[in-house]
Amino acid sequence: MRSLIEPTPWDAAALGLDTYELKEATPRAIAQMREAPGHYTVRVAPSADRRLLLESGFYYCDTLIEPWCRKDRLLARRHADATLAREVALEKVLAICHGAFRHGRFHRDLHVAREAADRRYDRWLAELHAAGRVRGLLYRDTLAGFIAVQDARLVLHAVAAPFRGRGLAGYWWSALCEELFAAGHSEVTSSISAANLAALNLYASLGFRFRNPLDIYHCVIA
To answer: Is 104 in contact with 117 (CB distance < 8 Å)?
Structure first.
């Protein structure tokens, strides 16, 4: 019988427990889940019937949405003092990353320690940095944040606290989007929590639209 649960070893290493993802929210998948204790994730459309999930012990953690933009829709903004750096020290971006992702689904999960959720993002950033995918965000030559990119997808980003709320992020995001379009990509995308209003407003202000919402549910099987 085909397995409907998939181990997620990357999460397991970061969180210090066995972790899995359900491939579908069906009674057969739930039955297989009961045979392997651990922490489970399932992603469902917001319109899906979630009664089976709730009856099986799943609880809501987050809604992810996908910002997307084409070159002809980008409302780019530029500032001479806000630039990107291809070379940035890992320890400096890790200092910005650690504790910055309070909107993340594992940070919102009361069954996961905050330290473990922080560690998950730190490990992710370190892997992206090792692959050369992290751009530093500079303001007047001071490191103010980072954006990690895979192909034309912005996969992880944060701005240091002293630089938030100053209208600077739009300049950095514009510069990176223009760079990706100039490299031949037809579309730039990302993935953000619907609860992250600052990120939502940023992407909307740059001409991004939103699609593919997914509700994320977790469950712990002892």
So the answer is: yes
